[in-house]
Amino acid sequence: MGKRDGITRPWGTRTPYGPGEPWPARVDSHLADGVAPGDVERWVRSAAVLHAGGDGLDIAVAGGRIAGVRGRADDRVNRGRLDPKDLFGWQANSSPDRLTTPLVRRDGELAEASWDEAMDLIVRRSKELLEEQGPGALGFYTSGQLFAEEYYTLAAIARGGLGTNHLDGNTRLCTATAAAALKESFGCDGQPSSYTDVDHADVIALFGHNMAETQAVLWSRVLDRLAGPNPPAVLCVDPRDTPVARAATLHLAPLPGTNLALMNGLLHEIIEHGWVDRGYVERCTVGYDDLAAMVADYPPERVAGICGVDAARIREAARLLGTAERLLCTVLQGFYQSHQASAAAVQVNNLVLLRGMLGKPGAGVLQMNGQPTAENTRECGADGDLTGFRNWANDDHVAELAKLWNVDESKIPHYGPPTHLMQMLRYAETGTLRFLWVSATNPAVSLPELRRVRSILDSSRLFLVVQDAFLTETAEFADVVLPAALWGEKIGTFTNADRTVHLSEKAVEPPGQARPDLDIFLDYARRMDFRGNDGEPFPQWHDAETAFEAWKRASAGRPCDYSGLSYAKLREVSGVQWPCTPDSPDGTERLYTDGKFFAQPDYCESYGRDLVTGAPMEPVEYQAMNPDGKAMLKAAEYVVPHETPGEDHPFFLINGRTLYHFHTRTKTGRAPELRAAAPEVWLEVSERDAAAAGLAEGDLAEVSTPRGAVHARVRIGGIRDGVLFLPFHYGYWDVDHAAGKDGDRAANELTFTDWDPVSKQPLFKTAAAALRRIGPPAPRPEPVPAAVDEEVVR
């Protein structure tokens, strides 16, 4: 696949196949200009790092540099295919503005320093705050893009070394709701299904999941099914006319913030028409009566009024779901980042449970991830979960982890729930959190209400450490900046959204003095002189492979069991799904095939929460409600979003991902092909709304909320009336003007500080906005090629 194909045909050529057949292989590759296949000195095993797909690939090395990539035909995830970010994103590794030496703030300016100076400054401030205030003064905010070994080490340092409750990942913005929904329904995190279920399904329902742009290779798999014999029907739930919507059998476009009402309406019809697997529900679940009573109040006519969707189309969608023989449901940010996020995602779980669509080929649910290692963040305990899917409220689980780490139980904070990111920001704002270490993420662009975020990061009371490969918008505020190695410059494992574990080998050396994140964390632990109960250094491991072996021991016996894996095995097999144990050495394709769940009261990861208020359930309540550890059908009433359109701000504003960029473009914005494909922020407006505002294609418009304003060129069409869309990727590192301080480009200038009561995930898709024209069209690049869909043979 050449450059043009990778951009203009992002889903590649079709390789049609039928239900139950293996997905044909198709190997995609791209080498740097001037590099021929014969110039490649070696190919190094890895997987994709710029989306959640987990596509297996090999890294080409020539002249000591990364020179390209190729897909692996034997990989269970992608069968050789690569998406545009895979094909071109690796070029960021060689960007001339990589951080190559530590920086410390002197006289208000960041200046080069030695590693000793930088680390001594961090350690000195850590010890001062521990002495003055205790571990609650220190916090850590990490990523969904590091390796399992690094997350596990960070969790051990924060919980078992320092004893702080303040550790979270940017998975809080991404898939916290996926984890919460799985815990609420199944008692534990962990995807029930597999990507291979696409091969068997006769109905695929995507709820708030623009798979074509967020997981392009998986969408290729769906397109190949659609092009083959006996294709599945596709249901798309999304307010935008995405490539998924255009390929769908049926598209529902609800108003933002109304997903729960829509799901309640669909479940109403499922129950009303008797499309319930009664035997499965009685044998494997609890809570049916309460759910049935709740959704009885949501007939299609009522739901139509709430969601702005025709009642007949709601009935049509329910029939499609209710009569499927093999129903696969997927969920992503359209639900996770919107109002009543966890409650809505749980209703998708309810749908597959009511239909008995779990644990068999083609049937199930994937509460998707948005990042390549979001699953590892959750498993390892670097995002507010307790390591190994253990239960914070279960003293036996805490004691088990303390024994594994050889530290006192009291060292691991479990007096209350871990501090989620939004609360950490509040503590920093009020001055009780005085130290924040940010690794591999860019909150100065990715968090809601950026003016507030900038003021917190810039506070003189906060000691800010930023560990990254580039001088990001966040690093500009730091007291210390640590240069980190990127993917391809270090070794480790990472796990994708369907539990597939890959090994990523080191291909090249990092530039200058940049170091792997694992080495940095371990260096901090040694300088802090953390010790276990035996007086030996803690953590007890010293490199990636010993960290992996330690993680295996921590995962053993838990749902995310890695005990049957090793680096040697992952060098031979291209992707293995956990749980992988000595008894199941080839991994596990689907969970819950026997109707048994990880929900037993003494084993479950969570006792659950009220879906409307977020109030936690007490252990004794859980024991009484679910003594046998069954799956749980949980109901929730729809309530109106906290911010809705009005006279001054008559539109719903949502933001989201696009095909060619990842997060804040720290890497993809440095890949020439990706940058050229989507060089600048834009605003999506419906035809009717554009006409009412006097806007033509390409006009410069201002979209504003009570928090701020963004200026963007208009793209007309592709969205329902009354809703505006901005991509959230665009910050200020690559623009040379004052916007870096006050902002007129980043979508999160406009979002507000609010979060889901269950998952604590911030809301990015329910702001109220105003729109006005401020300028005529200007010369700009050709339309983004991905806007032109491939022909789908149905």
From TrEMBL:
Domain of life of the native organism: Bacteria
InterPro entries (UniProt xref): Asp_de-COase-like_dom_sf, CT_Nitrate-R-NapA-like, MoPterin_dinucl-bd_dom, Mopterin_OxRdtase, Mopterin_OxRdtase_4Fe-4S_dom, Prok_molybdopt-oxidoreductase
Protein name: Nitrate reductase
Single GO MF annotation: molybdopterin cofactor binding
Annotated GO biological process: nitrate assimilation
Annotated spans, Disordered: 1-23, 774-794
Essential cofactor(s): [4Fe-4S] cluster; Mo-bis(molybdopterin guanine dinucleotide)
Ranges in a coiled coil: none
Gene3D superfamilies for the chain: 2.40.40.20, 3.40.50.740, ADC-like domains, Dimethylsulfoxide Reductase, domain 2
Family the entry assigns: Belongs to the prokaryotic molybdopterin-containing oxidoreductase family. NasA/NapA/NarB subfamily.
Pfam families attached to this UniProt entry: Molybdopterin, Molydop_binding
